[in-house]
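Notebook entry, structure prediction.
Reason for the run: the old model in the group folder had no record of what sequence produced it. Starting over properly, with the input documented here first.
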Amino acid sequence: MVDVLIVEDEVELAAATAEYLEAAGITVAHHATAEDALTALAATPARVILLDVNLPGMNGFTFCRQVRAQAPTPIIFVSARVSDDDQILALTVGGDDYITKPFSLAVLLAKVRRALDRGTAMTAPSAEFDDGRLRVEDESGRTFLRGEELHLTATEDRLLRHLLRHRGRVATKTDIIEDVWGDLFTSDGTLTVHIRRLRARIEPDPDKPTYIKTVWGRGYLFEDGA
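New structure, fully documented this time:
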């Protein structure tokens, strides 16, 4: 297994990024196309993926969907596309974060380290939950909806478990971002998109949530579903 897989067709940028990460003791592999990266992942899994959007052949959004259908590997988009629509789409298809080019290598390293740390972190306080419809297991790390296993992304899982650990009281946006993303560089917009996506996975009606309630100006409150 490699620590970081860079999927980037700008060879010089990928080389500079790899050199910086490797200097910090992080192992890196690089592929210039999504197709080559998918083939490589089948043989050598990665703990974190740094993914460009504009790639020759398959684009980053499609690649992300394919990876996400198979594994919860953290995916950080790194792209020159700066529109809100692109960032929202990246998060909607399963991305965990989005960095725009040009970017700070120090910020990128902080995000990568945090993603790697999440994979080896010690067990958090209990998020065990079962209301007969939604069941979240601590010991197995699995989540079930109406008896069927729900395959959440790594970020969706951390977000749900954070809310469950704080159920019955407001989880502030700042606390959620610090715990789930672990840095100061994640925007409220990123959190909003992930909340929307998580609601779509677990709520009977995402437009009228019964589990994840918005507390305007403060954060979110998890309540037992109706």
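Summary: The two ends are 43 Å apart (CA to CA).
The old model has been moved to the deprecated folder.
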